[in-house]
Amino acid sequence: MATLATLQNPDTSTADDWRTAADSLTFRQRAFINGDFKDAESGKTFSCFSPLRKSPLADVAECDEQDVNSAVAAARKAFDSGAWSRTDPADRKRVLFRLSDLIEEHRAEFALLDTLDMGKPISDSLTADVPEAVSLFRWYGEAIDKVYEEIAPVAPGNLAMIKRPPLGVVAAVVPWNYPLDMATWKVAPALAAGNSVVLKPAEQSPLSALLLAELAVAAGLPDGVFNVVTGFGESAGAALGRHPDIDCLGFTGSTEVGKFFLRYAGESNMKRVWLECGGKSPNVVFADYDNLDTVAEKAALGIFFNQGQVCSANSRLVVERSIKDALVEKIAERARALRPADPLDPETRLGALVNQEQTDRVMSYIKIGREEAKLVVGGERITLGESDCYVEPTIFDGVASNDRLAQEEIFGPVLSVIAFDSEEEAVTIANNSPYGLAASLWTRDLSRAHRLSERLIAGSVSVNTVDAISFTTPFGGLKQSGIGSDLSLHGLEKYTSMKTVWIKYED
């Protein structure tokens, strides 16, 4: 298990250092089942492409129902054996801590894999995504022996215990926008609770998940407890959704695919399904918040970070009319200064979109925007090196609340500006969406902050900031943004059952 010898110090590595490391990188290409790398039963592979290059990075095992069956069988056997599910929580903590340490030791490789797979800037992968994965395994490892079960108040001669045992076999299906992070959000709490896990990474970004599986075994996780099946949603993903021996499925991705998993559960064993799906988050700004530079800085971050490929991206700027023009110009200044550049350059702040298909999708919405609204800045597709998967930060003004730009998730660096004149109108516009994942609100009025945060239909409301998030608070959505929450101690609840044990004894 070699590290990247070409990067002695990732924190000070140059663009040339990262490019050299990328050229020398060896990729794990096979599924990981029952503690070992395996070819797909069919022998099929699919090409894993980078948005930075024309040639594929690797040919990866194309798993299907047969491979899913093997992975689930291995996970069930491991769970029933008790080698992980019935161990002392303190022992599970030690293994998760060791896994956290190994992720940190391999941070340069994880960062490089995710940047190559989906085009995000290497600085974001290295300083944000990987440290979050490290911390999250430690957080859940530390939490698991501090979560207490309950004793119910009952009559003398009775003991009623409310226990939280692990569910069994958990499937985790995760997206491509944060390959390592989104896997960690599901895998860490599921493992901490004592479950076995079968992870299916997105076909666009499977590489870091395979390294994670290798390190999990090295950390001391028993064979079969953590498995990775690589492949496509319509085959491997559907097989997980329909599998009768999976107890719970956690999914992050599009609302369209989330609905498939609800259907699959109904067609099979009524497994628990937890969904974190799409978003069209409003960023509501009132004129009483007088520091427009701060608002502009955060608004730009909220829509342009990760190339806008964030489920909770603040893609609708809902702004009081009296300050609209001034605020839009300040955001536009930041957009003009934020140019797409080589993701392997540590100075880059805006990288590539994940692939040609997603870039085409974003450009189709920009075309719609040119017809529906006023283009303020951006709107062009950029070619850098071998790739044209780059889009300028784009702002449209004069968007109507029912326009497609305001209603549909674009998942790219495109901001829609909608003006309002009253508090009631602001709330109406903000809630006029099929989604309810996140919202932001800017005001100096404390009463308004409390009043509107209750009325905004969103799983998270960030006041005087954008997209506030922490391991200690739940993250999930309402309406078609999903069911259930990731993160926090509540994240453990999804991967355990509530079981009553009632003992009658002689008083």
Strand order of the largest sheet: 14-17-18-13-12-20-21
Query: Which consecutive residue ranges, at least 5 long each, have pLDDT under 50?
Result: none
Tell me the CATH superfamily of the largest domain: Aldehyde Dehydrogenase, Chain A, domain 2
Mean pLDDT across all amino acids = 96
Terminal CA distance: 60 Å
Strand elements, count: 26
In total, the number of domains comes to: 2
CATH class descriptor of the largest domain: Alpha Beta
CATH architecture of the largest domain: 3-Layer(aba) Sandwich
Which class of secondary structure composition applies to the elements?
alpha/beta
Which term fits the overall shape? globular
User: Major sheet: size, sense and barrel closure?
Assistant: 7 strands, mixed
Number of helices: 16
Query: What would you report as the Rg, rounded to the nearest angstrom?
Result: 23 Å
Classify the helix fraction into a percent range.
25-40%
Enter the CATH topology name of the largest domain.
Aldehyde Dehydrogenase, Chain A, domain 2
Strand content: 15-25%
Description:
The structure is a single chain. This protein is α/β, with parallel strands linked by helices and 507 residues long. It folds into 2 domains: 186 residues, Aldehyde Dehydrogenase, Chain A, domain 1, CATH 3.40.605; 189 residues, 3-Layer(aba) Sandwich (Aldehyde Dehydrogenase, Chain A, domain 2). The protein contains 16 helices and 26 strands. Helix 2 packs parallel to helix 8. The chain starts with 14 loop residues before the first helix and ends with a strand. The model has no long low-confidence stretch (mean pLDDT 96).
